[in-house]
Amino acid sequence: MPDIVVCVKQTVDVYQLKPHPETLAPQLSQAQWKNSDFDLNAVEEAVRIKEKSGGKVVVVSVGPEVKQLLVRECLAMGADEAYILSDPSLAQADGAATAKALAAVIKTASPKWDIILCGEASLDQNAYQTGPRLAEIFNVPHVSYVNKLEVGDRVLKAWRAVEDGVEVVSCSLPAVVTVGLEINTPRLPSLLMIRAAQKKPLKELSLNDVGLTKDDLMPRAETLEVKALKTERRRQVFEGKVEELAEKLAERIIAHMGGRR
Amino acid sequence: MEPIRETYILLPPGTDFLMYLVLVPFALVFVFGVVYRLRRLGVRSVGELLNSVFRGVGYMARYGLLQRKVVSEHLAGVMHLLIYTGIIALFIGTTLVFIDHDILRVLGLRLLRGDFYLGFEFVLDVMGVAFLLGLALLIYRRFIRHEPRLRNRLEYSMALAGLLFIGLSGYVLEAIRLTVEPRPWSGYSFVGKAVSTAFFVNLPTEPLTLLYRGIWWSHAIVAFAMVAVLPYSPLGHIFSTLLNIAVNAPRQLPLGKMKTPFRIDELDPSADIKLGFRSLAELGWMEKLGLDACTDCGRCEAACPAHAAGTPLSPRDIMQKLRRQLWRSDGLDEDVFASGLIDEEEVWACTTCSACIEACPVLIRPMDYILEMRRALTLEGKLDKRKTAMLTNLSRYGNPYGFDQSEKQKFFEELAEMGVQTLEEKPDAEYVYWIGCASIYDARGREIAKSVAKILLKAGVSFAVLGVEETCTGDPARRIGEEGRFQELALQNIETLKQKSVKKIIVNCPHCFNTLKKEYRDFGLELEVKHHSQVIGELLRTGRLKLTKPLSEKITLHDSCYIGRINDVFEEPRFIIQSANKDGTYVEMSRSGRKSFCCGAGGSTYWYEVRRTDRESVIRLREAVETGASILAVECPYCMQMFADAARVTGVDQSLKIKDIAEIVAESI
Amino acid sequence: MKVLVAGEKPEQVITTANYAKSLNPAQVVAAAFKPFTENELAMLGGAGVEKLIHIPEKYLASGAAASAAALAELVKKLDPALVLIYASKKGVEICGRLAQRLDAAYASEAFAVEKGEKGFVAKRLVLGGGYVATVSLNSKPALASVKVSASETSQGMKPAVEEFDPGIDAPAVEVLETIKPEKTRVDLEKASLIVSVGRGFKKKEDLSLAEELAKLIGAEIGCSRPISGDLKWLEEERHIGLSGKRVRPNLYIALGISGQVQHLVGMRDSKTVIAVNIDPNAPMATESDYYFVADLYKILPLTIEILKKKLGS
Is residue A51 part of a domain? Predict the structure, then answer.
């Protein structure tokens, strides 16, 4: 009957993001917000573990403007409780600040947790930091890139995808696990279930409640600028005799096949 | 001697008393059976039942008595009519005998005498022949021709054997009686007379009389037994189908309309949610009655396009499985999916074309049960990736494709370049042209919308588009069972439409047509909705649109389910094609009109995959190719996509062009 | 300034060291868990490394916590200005813990690290891969896991090898087994060269033309939806598009693809797009850098022959 904590990050929908035509900065205000895809895999996994072995699933979400409706979606998937820390000082948070905030909330929300589950990376930052940092803060083992998980009594077994193949690992609980997209297909709760999740407890915490100050959340690595990687297509059209075209085609392929992005 | 019915002739005195004595236990079993079945179905009071029945008397007459839908399939219809009228005639005959012998005779009167009696004997013999002829047809269809939709089960064969026995033994009895006790009027019982002449005429009396008594008793007992087990046997369909027709037909929703079980804006969020059903206990008695009425005829299966495409779905199988579950001892509470009774894929394969409803001779609606089961499955939310993606796209982007606002904007800009105005630019427009997602986001769909716009502009119709405020009607969500998200979208659209005082809408998509016209009503908005075929038809008839370049092709039309069968629009598209194709010919596919065969995209199945061995679109395309047509005309952007894909995949795209009726008209302006 | 480079495998350490050269460091020290061959040591030397610190492999085998703990001790001892670790999957998770342990400014999967006004500046991809974030790393040490491709190696003087066993404990993760993949999984999202096929191909067998081209230039095969969906000529994993994969290769070669929006969404982020299509007006024309109007059945065999000569098959 494990106590599971799932960290869910709300991010912009990166597929909807369009850069500003001149500055090439992402127009964040125009895009919708959603729960980071990998974190939903984590919620789904947590709920499946609960359905199998019992226990409790607590969702934790921190950010500058955490939307309750999105957190309710996680509750509708089967989580039991949710804790939110929504503070503008998290607007520039890097991996360190995020981990600090999450750890503080987790200590309040579920002090005797057995497993912390989160997505291997977030949809917006793609940094792969949160899981390892949390594990380090709590001084527990962590397993990342997990695509299959078995939780036992005081121990877990995980299958993780690394370059060389699939590593089957085991460690003791408590532990932090970060999951990939392949681990499961997150259920989409019907709108009715999302509404029914209104009944489940959702607590909004302040910095004070968790013993943090604005300075604690200053980022160690500061993002100076974000610019789109867009290129306008050259749109060169080649017509004519196929033999000549073949030469040009081969030439183009060779010219552009090397190098890196 | 005056002709008169000699009941119990050749039988020892007291036979009638004994017979009635023997009848009693059988009758009790019958009554008990009826009461038990009705109770199990959930009927609580006779009053409730009778009330419902009275309301449906007209339907019972039309579809029960007059067998209206049964006869739509000719051979089966004739067969059933023969058996049905035969049995009724023989039953009336027996009743008249009862009245004549046990009531009137006691009172000193007789009914079955004289000419009336002669007529009686003749008619009964004729009807007996009809009855046996019907049974012969049944045997032919089932055991010689092996019609694919017919299933053979022990209980059906036993019922057949019983009926056959009663029919044949009746004549044998008649024959023996006429042999042992000939009468001058025996000729009126012409069959008996013939049998007598052929088999019994030279046989000694005593053994014949004994034989007569033996057969008479077995005839009686078989008849009594068949009546006694009627509530449990296939012949019980006599009552269950009539009841179903009477009780359910009057309260059925129009085709294409799904039940609105709640209003999301009026729901108490803390209330318990119940949506659809996963166990039979969740069904009301009227729905259970619908299941019980299923006779396993298989017409729905034969009509089902998903079945033809080799998916796991057979509407008949679902009905029969649920029906058998109904009568199992613990059947009511079992989850039909968890127990493995129904495979989820069966329920997902349905394209909601309503062909099964059209086909069912006893007015059962297999599709309704399927959609209610979908609702239960979606409630839990454990859908596969593609269904989840579609619903997520709908929620997040307002369209099932998952394109963001900029794609929509781009298309409306293209329309603006053609001269199409938005409602903001033209607030006094008479119609709003509702484009629909398939025509906003799909390349081929866009061409259809542009053709429609071209026609409307040319004819000077007063119209405008909503522009980027148009979102999906929500139909894909409703068909997949996600009622909450459907209502969310619907209410949003209704808000927009109400704000802009929109009353009249033109659409080119039958799904938008159906949803806007029939489903939005439940949420407080009545709209006058016209499909582009209706609009263009009107324009042509009134001369507002003139076609100057007649085509000379061979064209066939695919009747889209949601415009044709479900919304009764058949004439207009044909009129339009024939007007544009003046120098050409028009041919019908083998399955057209109400019997049209679905393209396979409906019911949201366009957005996901189920196990299958074939594709509905490929099957239908073959039919189109068979007509020798050069153009397959469609009236729906989804049908367009399905057939275009199928044509590419089968290599037919070189010889058969797929065009929307708007494109055909636009070409000949 | 002193730079410490490290990695899970020797070749990764060498790559990272070679990259570090661009920062013009005064000294580059390398750290590794696995032993180096003589040749690898020479290549490390060629990258400008004078000292290689060998940390006992048991730390790597015990998992990221132990590896990070050991590296942290080494960092404390060496006090470098910048620590660069190769961004293999294990490298990245070790880095995460290391950053937390050292309370260092850290940028993960950086494709470029440069000197900044204060400290260093790293560039990395964010927001689904379509954007570059410039991150300031102002701490000592600054930390980055680097995702750079192997560059030319040269031989040099072999560095001195030092053993370093910090003798520190950390939470362990036990590896029970490693399952080698039977067939290489298709990972289009990470491919840098993709040859994509569409309905221009008439038969499944004809795809061999595209496959030959792909093999020649080392590209992965992708496709538009009808190929993997309706026709099932290729696995669904190869489907690029709105409901398929989003790819960002260096070079995307679209063969016989018309360029429906649903497909474009999947490959728009390609650096260079070359397309071959018989239709001069296909939507793909406006979405390509180089658009060849030709019958692919004619142009492909010729092009393959030319490439064979130029690349030497």
Answer: yes
ipTM of the complex: 0.88
Strands (E), chain C: 2-7, 27-32, 49-54, 82-86, 106-115, 120-126, 131-137, 142-146, 160-163, 174-179, 193-197, 220-223, 251-255, 272-277, 290-293
> Does C15 have pLDDT greater than 80?
yes
Residue A254 lies in a domain: no
CATH number at residue C37: 3.40.50.620
In-domain check, residue C111: yes
CB A102 within 8 A of CB A130: yes
pLDDT at B654: 81
The model's pLDDT over A125-168, given as tens digits with 9 standing for 90+, comes to 989 999 999 999 999 999 999 999 999 989 999 999 888 788 99
* C134 contact residues in A (CB cutoff 8 A): 223-227
Residue A206: count other Cβ atoms within 10 Å of its Cβ: 10
Q: Is residue A236 part of a domain?
A: no
A199 touches chain B (CB under 8 A): yes
Which of these ranges, A38-42, A167-171, B286-290, B643-647, has the smallest mean pLDDT? B643-647
CATH fold of B15-243 reads: Fumarate Reductase Cytochrome B subunit (1.20.950)
Touching subunits for chain C (3+ Cβ pairs under 8 A):
A, B
Which chain C positions have a beta carbon within 8 Å of A239's beta carbon? 280, 293
The yes-or-no verdict on residue A261 having pLDDT over 50 is: no
Would residue C238 count as lying in a domain?
yes
Residue A89 domain boundaries: 3-217
Position A71 pLDDT exceeds 50: yes
Contact residues, chain C, for B648 at CB < 8 Å: 199, 226, 230
| B548-667 under CATH 1.25.40, yes or no | no
Are B484 and A194 inside 8 Å of each other by CB? yes
Bigger pLDDT: C140 vs B531: B531
pLDDT band at B274 (very low <50, low <70, confident <90, very high): confident
Collect all residues of chain A within an 8 Å Cβ-Cβ radius of residue B492.
none
CA distance B648 to chain C (A): 9
C116 in reach of chain B (CB within 8 A): no
- Asked, colleague to colleague, whether B399-540 and B548-667 share their fold, the answer is yes
Tell me the pTM: 0.87
Test the A interface: residue of B263, B267, B379 with most A CBs within 10 Å: B379
Looking at every residue in chain A, the average pLDDT score rounds to 92
Count the domains in chain C.
2
Top-level class of domain B262-382: mainly alpha
Nearest CA in chain C to A129: C96
CA distance C81 to C3: 6
Quote the CA–CA distance of B486 and B608 in Å, as a whole number.
Answer: 18
Range of the domain at C227: 188-311
Query: Which of the following CATH numbers is that of domain B399-540: 3.30.910, 2.102.10, 3.40.50, 2.60.40?
Result: 3.40.50
How many Cβ pairs closer than 8 A exist between chain A and C? 262
